[in-house]
Known about the structure:
Chain A is mainly beta. Chain A has one domain (2-226): Lipocalin, CATH 2.40.128. Helices cover 7% and strands 70% of the residues of chain A. Chain A has one helix at residues 2-17, and strands spanning 22-38, 41-57, 63-82, 85-95, 102-114, 119-130, 137-149, 159-173, 176-191, 195-206, 214-226. Chain A has an 11-stranded mixed beta barrel with strand order 1-2-3-4-5-6-7-8-9-10-11. Chain A is globular, with a radius of gyration of 18 Å. The mean pLDDT of chain A is 90. Chain B has 2 domains: 22-93, Nuclear Transport Factor 2, Chain: A (Roll), CATH 3.10.450; 94-122 and 145-190, no CATH class. The longest helix of chain B has 16 residues, at 3-18. Residues 14-23 of chain B have low confidence and may be disordered. Chain B has 5 helices and 9 strands; from the N terminus they run H-E-H-E-E-E-E-H-E-H-E-E-E-H. Chain B is α+β, with helices and mostly antiparallel strands. In chain B, a hairpin with a 5-residue loop joins strand 4 and strand 5. Chain B has a 9-stranded antiparallel beta sheet with strand order 1-2-3-4-5-6-7-8-9. Chain B is flat. The chains are: A mainly beta, B alpha+beta. Chains A and B meet through strand 1, strand 2, strand 3, strand 5 and strand 6 of A and helix 1, strand 1, strand 8 and helix 5 of B. Chain A: It comes from Cyclobacterium lianum. Chain A: This is DUF2490 domain-containing protein.
Amino acid sequence: MKKVVCILIFILPALVMGQGRVTNFGLFPEFQIGFSAAENLKVTGKIESQHGMLDKTESNEADWGYYHNQTDFQGFLGTSLNPFVAITAGYQYRVEPGRDNSHRSIQQVSFLQRASQYKVGHRVRTDQTFAPGEPIEYRLRYRISFEIPIEGQSLDPGEFFLVFSDEPIYSLQSGESGLENRLVAALGHYSKGKQKFQAGIDYRTDRFFEDDFRQRTWFKFGWYLSL
Amino acid sequence: MDWRIVNVLLFFASLVAYGQEKVEREYRVKVREVPAEAREWLDDAFEGHKRVKWFMEETSGKKSFEAKFPWKKEDYSVEFDLSGKIEDIEIQKNWQDLSEAIRNNLEVYFEANYSKWRIEKIQMQFTGEPDDLEDMIDEEEQEQIVIRFEIEYYAEKGEGKGLWEGLFDKDGNFMNKREVMIPPVDNLFF
């Protein structure tokens, strides 16, 4: 298990920082809480915050230094169609230094598949971002996630697990489209009291067809609490 | 606001909450940790078995050892108490593996109680004395063996939808059921 942690924390970001045209690296903590507000109505709140530590553009020296990139405050209301399918609507308020704060409306459908030794999560999401003085940005996203127990054949409280996910994102703003991809590999722990903890690498690439292809690598760590 | 403070607070909040204990789990154990009686019973009953994975199972304070392995193209799970005495044998089955009479009885139960249903998992369960269970495996004798089916199913009735684990007798007649709760998976969806 130590080897997995080493790969996630050290080797992967080191590899990705050696390539590409624009590179960022930083810390990405997040906290999430979910609870049932009524019969079949679930409320989820989330805070996620990006803190940059390194910026590098091709042919320039790496610029090390702390900066706050952005912090998102999110709230969701969801209902389950059955134990495996849920539909959810949400709102996000983003604080971003140097730019106007923005609002985002979110809609998603999620599907859970259970295999004998792992779980697969599918998330289809659309969102619309509203920022002062800017045209509305529309996005369509699909994320597939795998949760794999390490210690047994099913994930039980007190055990570690691995999470791998990938999410391609298509965006449209003022007739211009964009593509982004988010790849996550993390080590998690499922604890008593319906809590999960995860720490790993969130590797994001975008601007694929432009001169300034960008890759952002975040060390992401989160606490996910269900009441 | 100094955003470094947010970062540090979120990090330490994670650490503080992490220190809590677990209650119910199944985890791998090494073969040398398993009582000799259990290992010997398994070797005698399943002569030539391969690829056995041993687990410790803790459920509501009760601990047991569990051996999981493939045998004659089926997935077997054999449970032993902490002294190494066998408790039961479970074999994963498909719907088509069950006899027509059992399938009919199960269908009668599901149709009578639900508007929509779907089988998720079937386990055939054998309990009995160690010698009788051994005879069942190597000589295919089923005298003194209690046979049951543990069936996990998704079902809908009116407004209610849920995942259940039902216990059925050897003929497929309903005995009891309990709701299956899926552990939280919000980390996969938000």
